[in-house]
Amino acid sequence: MDIHHLTYFIEVARHRNFTKAAQALHISQPSISKMIKVLEEELGVPLFARTTRQIELTDAGRAVLNEAQLIINSFQNLKSQLSDVMQLRTGNILFGLPPMVGASFFPKIIGQFNHKYPGISIKLIEVGSRQIEDGIEDGSLDLGVVALPVKEDNFEMLSFLKEPLMVITPINHRLAKRAKIHLVDLKDEPLALFREDFSLHDTIIDRCHDRGFYPKLICESSQWDFIAEMVASNLGVALLPTTICRDLDPKRIKSIPLTDPIIYWDLAIIWKKDK
């Protein structure tokens, strides 16, 4: 058994499919099947229950998966420490970045990092905050940007932005002339919202519940520009961070401060404790 066997096993367990795991690892499907068979023979137990449609972990497979993830994380930590010893001459960083954040803040910063550390490869993974938290916990990401709060016992963090959300409406909307808008004013409005894997989704839903209503959702998206276009097309309203609102077309969209309550977009870079 070597580290590759465990890596391949974890990927198959994650996808519940040999072909998808092989594609993710950029190897052939027969190769990964052979690796799993060798691992099963060496351990003396079946790791997967195979059916015609999919595969599932056996009880033994679940036990091996828990230990395999610990071993892989320890191995990755060892590689990181060795990279530090080498004064950051080589290495890889898997960086989780929500779509809404990337274009606003990070291209310039990553360019400066690449100039200073040309041997370090940064791979950006565009997903929502919830998936970034999960990825850092299971070791598939090294660090990432999330909207707070997170489980502080699990992560170290560096906060770098806190700003209020704005209500955006079509320019001719009945609320467009308001100086400010209360959240309850939106109870009868179609609302374009971020997907469930974005922490702002739950935050906005929870604040609506606090005000005694459930929003009328017209769409859930990962892309702020799509949400803005829905609003500009008179299909509803939305809540977006102040930074994003500055880039919207004022001839089509009106941005108005949200009050009662003020909902903040609170961003931080997080990484796993003790890593």
Commentary on this structure:
The chain has 275 residues and is an alpha/beta fold. The protein is 42% helix and 27% strand. It contains nine helices and twelve strands. It has helices spanning 3-15, 18-25, 29-43, 59-85, 99-116, 129-138, 199-210, 224-232, 242-245; strands at residues 48-50, 55-57, 91-97, 120-126, 143-147, 155-170, 181-182, 190-194, 216-221, 237-241, 253-259, 264-272. Strands 3, 4, 5, 6, 7, 8, 9, 10, 11 and 12 form a ten-stranded mixed sheet that branches. Helix 7 (199-210) links the parallel strand 8 (190-194) and strand 9 (216-221). Helix 1 (3-15) crosses helix 3 (29-43). It starts with a helix and ends with a strand. The mean pLDDT is 89.
Question: Helices and strands in order, then pairings?
Answer:
Blueprint: H1 3-15, H2 18-25, H3 29-43, E1 48-50, E2 55-57, H4 59-85, E3 91-97, H5 99-116, E4 120-126, H6 129-138, E5 143-147, E6 155-170, E7 181-182, E8 190-194, H7 199-210, E9 216-221, H8 224-232, E10 237-241, H9 242-245, E11 253-259, E12 264-272
Parallel strand pairs: 3-4, 3-5, 7-11, 8-9, 8-10
Antiparallel strand pairs: 1-2, 5-12, 6-10, 6-11, 6-12
Helix pairs in contact: 1-2, 1-3, 1-4, 2-3
Rounded mean pLDDT is: 89
Order of helices and strands: HHHEEHEHEHEEEEHEHEHEE
Largest sheet: 10 strands, mixed
What would you call the structural class? alpha/beta
Helix percent reads 40-55%
**Spatial extent as radius of gyration:** 23 Å
Report the β-strand fraction as a percent range: 25-35%
